[in-house]
C-alpha cells in the first residue's frame, strides 16, 4: 500500500527531532456548495532538526515512532 504524502507549513520546531506541521485541505461542502478550508496539525519526525518555523515541507506516513508521531519529513526522492 502506498504511503500518503501531505504538504504543509512548519508551525513549531521546539521539540527535539520533531516538528509540528499544519496541513490545510480544501473541499466543497456537499449541501451549501461552498469551498471550505480545514486544517490539521501533525507531529512529524525531523531527524536532522533541519526544518524551521515557516518552512513548507512534505511529510509521509511511516511506522509509529512515538505515541503521537506517525509521519516523517522527507525531501521528495522516492525511497
Automatic annotation (TrEMBL):
GO biological process terms held by the UniProt record: translation
Alphabetic keyword roster: Ribonucleoprotein, Ribosomal protein, RNA-binding, rRNA-binding
Molecular-function GO terms, alphabetical: rRNA binding; structural constituent of ribosome
Function: One of the primary rRNA binding proteins, it binds specifically to the 5'-end of 16S ribosomal RNA.
Listed InterPro entries: NA-bd_OB-fold (IPR012340), Ribosomal_uS17 (IPR000266), Ribosomal_uS17_bact/chlr (IPR019984)
GO cellular component, one term: cytosolic small ribosomal subunit
Protein family per UniProt: Belongs to the universal ribosomal protein uS17 family.
Top-level taxonomic group: Bacteria
Pfam families assigned: Ribosomal_S17
Record carries keyword Ribonucleoprotein: yes
Naturally occurring in which organism (per UniProt): Pyruvatibacter mobilis
Identification of the protein by name: Small ribosomal subunit protein uS17
Known partners and oligomeric status: Part of the 30S ribosomal subunit.
NCBIfam families: PRK05610.1 (NF004123), uS17_bact (TIGR03635)
Amino acid at each position: 500500500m502506498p504511503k500518503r504524502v501531505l504538504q504543509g507549513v512548519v508551525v513549531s520546531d521546539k521539540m527535539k527531532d520533531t516538528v509540528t506541521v499544519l496541513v490545510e485541505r480544501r473541499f466543497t461542502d456537499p449541501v451549501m456548495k461552498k469551498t471550505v478550508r480545514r486544517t490539521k496539525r501533525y507531529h512529524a519526525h525531523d531527524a536532522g532538526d533541519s526544518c524551521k518555523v515557516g518552512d513548507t515541507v512534505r511529510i509521509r506516513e511511516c511506522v509509529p515512532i512515538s505515541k503521537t508521531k506517525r509521519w516523517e519529513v522527507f525531501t521528495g526522492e522516492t525511497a
